[in-house]
Amino acid sequence: MKIHGTILLLIFCNSLCAQQNKIIDEGNTFYRQQQYNKAEDEYQKALQASPGNRIAKFNLANALIKQNKTDDADKLLSGLNIKENDNDIRSKATYNEGVILSQQKKLEESVEMYKESLRLDPNDKDARENLQKALLELKKKNPPKKQDEKKKKEQQQPPPKPKISPREAQQQLKLLEQKEKQVQEKLQKNSQTGTPLPKDW
Questions:
Q1: What angle do CA 93, 94, 96 make, to 5 degrees?
Q2: Selecting from 3.30.200.20, 3.30.750.200, 1.10.620.20, 1.25.40.10, what CATH number does the domain 15-141 have?
Q3: According to DSSP H, which parts of the chain are helical?
Q4: How many C-beta atoms surround the C-beta of residue 188 within 10 A?
Q5: Residue 46 scores a pLDDT above 70
Q6: Phi, psi torsion values for 147, nearest 5 degrees
Q7: 154-179 per-position pLDDT tens digit
Q8: Is the pTM of the predicted complex or chain greater than 0.90?
Q9: Spatial distance between the Cα atoms of 104 and 70, rounded to a whole number of angstroms
Q10: Cβ contacts of residue 5 below 8 Å, gap of 6+?
Q11: What whole-number distance in Å separates Cα of residue 93 and Cα of residue 126?
C-alpha cells in the first residue's frame, strides 16, 4: 500500500513564508532522494519557525512513515485530520492514517479511515483500491460461515425432543401404570393356571 507522498507546497508573498518554503523545498529534495531522516530534519526546522505549518506537518508525517516511526506520524496526521478545514489535506492525512493501520494489521480501523478519506475526496483512486484490499484481507481473516458448514452442524446434532406439558406427561404416566397393572394381573392368573402367556407385540 502506498502512502500519499504528495509533497504539498504553498507559495506565500512575505519573506518568512519564503524562507519556510525554502526549508520545505530542501526537505522535499531529501525526501525524493529517499533520505528520509534528512527530510525529517528540514521539516522539523520549518515547524520550529512556524509551528502551525500544515504542509511541514504533513510532509514530516510522510518522512516519519518512511522511517517506520508510525506512532509519531499518526499523531501528526490525526492532528491534521481534526484541525484542518482543507478537505484535500484532511483526505490525504486520513488516507495515510489508513495506510499505517493497514501495516499494523488493524484492518477494521483502516477500513474506516479509507472510507473517511473517500468521503472527503470521492475521486481518490488509491483510497478506493486500499479500501478494497483491506476489506478483502478482513474477509479472509474473518470468513463468513458457509451454508454447508451450518447444515453439517445441524445434521450432527440430534433432533430436538418434542416438549410435552406436565399434564400430558402425567396422563401418559397413568396410562403406563394401568397397562403395567393389567400385565401383572394376567401374570398372576396364568401362573395359577399354568398356561403360557401370548406375546404382546
A1: 65
A2: 1.25.40.10
A3: 15-32, 36-49, 54-66, 70-83, 87-103, 107-120, 125-141, 147-156, 166-193
A4: 10
A5: yes
A6: -60, -40
A7: 667 666 666 777 888 788 888 888 88
A8: no
A9: 9
A10: 31, 62
A11: 13
